[in-house]
Amino acid sequence: MDPIIYETSKITKGTKLTLSDDTVIGDFCFINCKELVMLDGAQLNRFVSISGRDRVVIGRGATVSNYASLKTSTDTPYGAMNDQAPDDQRRVRSGEIIIGNNAFIGEYASIMPGVAVGDGTVVGAYTYVSKDIPPWLIVHPPSYRTISVFRRLADGVVMKDYPEDARKMAEEEIIRKGMIR
User: Which of 12, 18, 144, 163 is deepest in the core (most CB within 10 A)?
Assistant: First the structure.
């Protein structure tokens, strides 16, 4: 099936689009970045905002939910663009954003420059992500802790890994590496 771009979406002139089969850019999305690559079955739901000076890659079967924001560039330490700030307070940060295959980005989540979200990872609603997230995790505020760890079996079946030690190890790694604020 061909890609679907809703007519109410806004894609700026400088944005290069590479869309695979079955991709969807939903109602009222705003896309203003260097390049957007969407692989088979990827979808942007309503009111998703993608902005900045770099590239965004959205993996096969990945979903970015309503009102989520992907920023490939920021202009201040707090992530908001602000060209009115004095030069000594500005800190431009840019980087490619990669959303892995079958990943899910929840409503109102903010993904910052240079972040890679691993395959099968679920980022909960309202989560602010400023560091890479490993594959097959579920992360969600307010505690920003791992809720579950998934593992992929040789035959391709995905199972939740409930043992407390596996969950604790994943949480410690996330906290140690400062992956989620």
Answer: 144
Structure tokens at 125: 């609603």
pLDDT digits (tens, 9 = 90+) for 87-133: 666 667 889 999 999 999 999 999 999 999 998 888 999 998 988 98
CB atoms within 10 A of CB 70: 27
CB contact at 8 A, 38 and 78: no
> Rounded to an integer, what distance in angstroms lies between the CA atom of residue 90 and that of residue 38?
31
CA distance 18 to 163: 41
Quick one: which of 4, 48, 46 has its CA closest to 23?
4
Instruction: Quickly tell me which residue has 């500005």 as its tokens.
Output: 90
Question: CB within 8 A of 160, min separation 6: which ones?
Answer: 148, 149, 150
Q: Over the stretch 136-173, which tens digit does the pLDDT of each residue have?
A: 888 877 655 555 555 554 445 454 544 455 555 555 65
The CATH code of the domain that includes 39 is 2.160.10.10
| Counted domains in the chain | 1
What CA–CA distance (Å, rounded) separates 113 from 96? Answer: 6
Give the integer Cα–Cα distance in Å for 82 and 139: 29
Non-local CB neighbours of 71 within 8 Å, separated by 6+ positions: 51, 52, 79, 110, 111, 112, 113
